[in-house]
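Example record

One chain of 205 residues, shown exactly as stored in the release files.
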Amino acid sequence: MLSDKGFNLWADDYDKSVRLSDEDGTYPFAGYKNILNTIYKRVLSASSKTVLDIGFGTGTLTTKLYERGCEIYGQDFSDRMIELAQEKMPNARLFQGDFSKGLVDTLAHQKYDAIIATYSLHHLTDLQKVSFLKNLLMQLNEGGSIYIGDVAFETRAALQKCMDEAGEEWDYDEVYFVYDELKIHFPTMQFEQMSNCAGIITLHC
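Predicted structure tokens for this chain:
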């Protein structure tokens, strides 16, 4: 798993790395643009005003929401990622913190219309995901939603197939979403496969 130093070093080249993988249709970022566009449209169509982005990186998605008038809150592991995102969103409230330990206090005392996490929560174990998501549901305003875009699969067999195809490129330090295992804990959870290796998970308040 990347350390905060690793994330800081990766920050300046992150967007380029993502774009190349998406354009090539390869693991891990195949479908990336489509996922971000879909989440962007859903947040706006729900008239969400306050948005929390967990692991926002360089602010690719939240910058677009910020430009449309959303009040942006965020937490990220990397100081450098925060610096790059804050330049794009001067009035966003962005905090440094390891979300595997939960939200920082300021964010934990807020309520949100939408909570988004794109390509970040795979750094949590499956047990941590369940606990974290249950806590996030309590952070939503009535009618709010959580949107997760990430490397994700409907079944363990589908994950295994992608792993076999990725070969040496597979990142064994990351723990990817398997929908039919998570939905046991969240019966109303919805999943849409957006590429051979990624999808959108949605939870509603």
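Notes: DSSP finds eight helices and eight strands in the chain.
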